[in-house]
């Protein structure tokens, strides 16, 4: 390895990360990367939000992305940590795919997705040499990279750090919660869709939060009806109200329902700013309302 560079191993290949004069991460036994404790890297982060669900395909990455954009439009500085190691989609949703990760004295510099540098992003997607590369890792290696993301990313001053997680209650979730537990305030947004099957799986996610001592900011029901782009009428393609009923049964706040919206889908596919581009959309109203509730509830719930 040439001097002045860090080699980050992803599967069978590697991606070099440009660095300055900072220290090298240590290599753990077995060849994996061992996280170096850097408590200072999260010292400027005021609030940390984990976006969770016990079910895949409910739109956690969509909610994470749009929540970050909505908070940015409220004048907040936001970071997004994408720990969905096997399906990192947020770089595409924010039109940041292919950008390089640099290093500074404090560690890895996140990728800024706008000129104002109001949204920063770190994802395993930036470390893949080939975007089609599969991350075929066992638990300990995933655990080590998540710890390194938490300790080594130099976020600077942030109002909110939004952490997008994979589905389930697996190694990645335990590693993320354990790594972030020392930092406060820390809370969870739980995402579901209206169907009974999804609600049942997400109920287990709420049990995970309770067992790990993770406070729940609220439940969001995504894909709640189809918003017609012509007349704005909302048709319940799936059932309705499952998320609200789940929140009532669990005794946690219900933050709102986000409809299926072709404009939102197109914006995510193109990496656009939905909150800025479609202020008359029903999904816009739902997402901005949820962001407002997060702003109001976070300090009270996690004080």
In terms of DSSP E residues, the strand content is 15-25%
- DSSP, total strands: 15
- The ordered string of helix (H) and strand (E) elements is EEEEEHEHEEEEHEHEHEEHEHHH
Query: Major β-sheet, in short?
Result: 9 strands, mixed
Low-pLDDT ranges: 1-7, 11-38
Shape call: globular
**Mean pLDDT, as a whole number?**
83
Tally the helices.
9
Radius of gyration: 19 Å
Find the structural class using helix and strand composition: alpha/beta
Please estimate the helix content.
Answer: 25-40%
Ends apart, CA distance between termini: 47 Å
Describe this structure in words.
The chain is α/β, with parallel strands linked by helices. It has nine helices and 15 strands. It has helices at 60-73, 90-93, 139-152, 171-180, 196-212, 242-250, 262-270, 274-277, 282-302, and strands spanning 5-10, 13-18, 26-27, 33-34, 48-52, 78-82, 102-104, 107-109, 111-112, 119-123, 160-164, 186-192, 215-227, 234-235, 254-260. The strands form four sheets. Strands 5, 6, 9, 10, 11, 12, 13, 14 and 15 form a nine-stranded mixed sheet that branches. It has a two-stranded antiparallel ribbon with strand order 1-2. Helix 3 runs parallel beside helix 4 and helix 5 packs parallel to helix 6 (242-250). Mean pLDDT is 83; it is low at 1-7 and 11-38.
Secondary structure elements and pairings:
Elements: E1 5-10, E2 13-18, E3 26-27, E4 33-34, E5 48-52, H1 60-73, E6 78-82, H2 90-93, E7 102-104, E8 107-109, E9 111-112, E10 119-123, H3 139-152, E11 160-164, H4 171-180, E12 186-192, H5 196-212, E13 215-227, E14 234-235, H6 242-250, E15 254-260, H7 262-270, H8 274-277, H9 282-302
Parallel strand pairs: 5-11, 5-12, 6-10, 6-11, 12-13, 13-15
Antiparallel strand pairs: 1-2, 3-4, 7-8, 9-10, 13-14
Helix pairs in contact: 1-9, 3-4, 5-6
């Amino acid at each position: 390895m040439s001097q002045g560079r860090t080699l980050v191993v992803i599967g069978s290949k590697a991606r070099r990360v440009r660095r300055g004069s900072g220290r090298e991460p240590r290599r753990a036994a077995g060849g994996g990367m061992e996280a170096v404790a850097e408590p200072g890297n999260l010292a400027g982060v005021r609030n940390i939000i984990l976006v969770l669900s016990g079910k895949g395909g409910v739109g956690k990455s969509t909610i994470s992305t749009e929540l970050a954009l909505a908070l940015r439009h409220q004048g907040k500085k936001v970071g997004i940590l994408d720990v969905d190691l096997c399906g990192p989609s947020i770089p595409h949703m924010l039109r940041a795919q292919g950008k390089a990760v640099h290093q500074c004295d404090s560690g890895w510099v996140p990728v800024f997705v706008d000129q104002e540098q109001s949204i920063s992003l770190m994802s395993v997607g930036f470390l893949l040499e080939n975007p089609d590369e599969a991350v075929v890792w066992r638990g300990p290696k995933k655990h080590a990279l998540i710890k390194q993301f938490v300790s080594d990313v130099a976020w600077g001053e942030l109002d909110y750090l939004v952490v997008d997680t994979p589905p389930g209650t697996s190694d990645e979730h335990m590693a993320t919660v354990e790594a972030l537990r020392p930092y406060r305030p820390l809370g969870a947004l739980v995402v579901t869709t209206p169907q009974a099957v999804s609600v049942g799986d997400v109920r287990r996610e709420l049990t995970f939060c309770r067992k790990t001592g993770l406070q729940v900011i609220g439940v969001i029901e995504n894909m709640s009806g189809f918003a017609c782009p012509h007349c704005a009428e909302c048709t319940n393609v799936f059932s309705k109200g499952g998320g609200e009923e789940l929140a009532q049964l669990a005794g946690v706040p219900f933050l709102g329902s986000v409809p299926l919206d072709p404009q939102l889908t197109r914006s995510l596919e193109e990496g656009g700013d939905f909150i800025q581009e479609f202020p008359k959309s029903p999904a816009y109203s739902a997402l901005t309302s949820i962001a407002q509730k997060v702003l109001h509830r976070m300090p009270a719930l996690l004080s």
